[in-house]
Amino acid sequence: MAAETHYSANTGLVKISTANSNLDGTGTLGNVITGGDNGTLIKRVIIKATDTGSTSTTEGMVRLFVYDGSNTRLLTEVEIPAMGQSATNPTFRKTILLDFKLEANFILKASTENAETFVVIAEGLDFSYYTSSVRPESTNYTANTGVQGITSQNSNLDGSGTVATLVTATSSGFDGLAISSITLKAYTAVTRGMVRLFVQNTSTGAANTFLFKEIPIVPVDPTGTFESFEMKIEFPDTFQIQSGYKIVASIETAADQFINGIVDAMDWKYPA
Questions:
Q1: Residue 206 phi/psi, 5° resolution?
Q2: pTM of the predicted model as reported, rounded to 2 decimal places
Q3: CATH number of the CATH domain containing 180
């Protein structure tokens, strides 16, 4: 971020208690936090059980989703153990170091597998810029959160066939897109196979689509107490692509196996 970046705390708070076993984003979910004008950096999420008694929690799951205004995509799952509560025994608590940039007006949502009450707290920071004195060399960032399902079977490595667009670098007014990570999260059972990631320029088709990474899929059959396949590809120094270019993806295995691709990225530009 630029030296002139201003941060405003955006604390997401919600209680969830309605049982929802769905991994596809349907059913009852609570709104945890909404992205600010330039985006919101979600540093961490705290999950805390609040039911009392010898069965404060049973084995289950709390799930976090990203909603882009049209689609709700599973981001990650947190396993909940069976625990009791007393005057000397605290309830379940989990802190997730998320470090995720949520695009403007996108919403982080949460659900619980079992009808048990949890508080979900997001420590967020909205960011803006002190435009009246921004130095010309300063960098301004705007969150660009890619949220897409990868569902069409495609065994091709040359970029041909059906691919899903995970994120597009904004072309107008920006100098490129810096990608921090790509999370692959299944919302069905999966068998052994592969997800392929490509860089695509401003035109579609095999001639303009270039394979840069393959991620093996480990067979997983999720349940209410066992989380689905998940893989996070991190880029420590960010992976930067040209304005207008895209990250697209395909899946090797059968079309009834669905994986979400969620991209944590920010477009950048410099003051005029």
A1: -60, -40
A2: 0.92
A3: 2.60.120
